Amino acid sequence: MTQPKDSDHDDEPPFEPSDELNYEAYVWLVRMTSGEVSEEDMVKFLRWRDASDENLIAISKATILWNALGDLKPRESTSDDLDDSDQTPVSPGPNLTLQ
């Protein structure tokens, strides 16, 4: 069985955005948590997950991140957020046209 490297448990993100396998795991995770999973989807997912240790590790990492993000709560806005009197106005810059 392939073991994740030690850095997987440290400060490094659980995946590289360009990693195709991890992307595939996130696609499966989104599909499986959509609330519209068919029996065929479940069979295909389980077959994919069980096809290799790498797939199992990728879906495990995706699930950990998904659950961690689910625990985040949006910050409540305050009146300070609306007070922009101390903000320096920004020039819109030159007009750009597409030719």
TrEMBL record:
Positions with biased composition (Polar residues): 87-99
InterPro entries linked to this entry: FecR_N
Start and end residues of each FecR N-terminal domain: 24-55
Pfam families: DUF4880
Lineage: superkingdom: Bacteria
Region named Disordered: 73-99
Name of this chain's protein: FecR N-terminal domain-containing protein
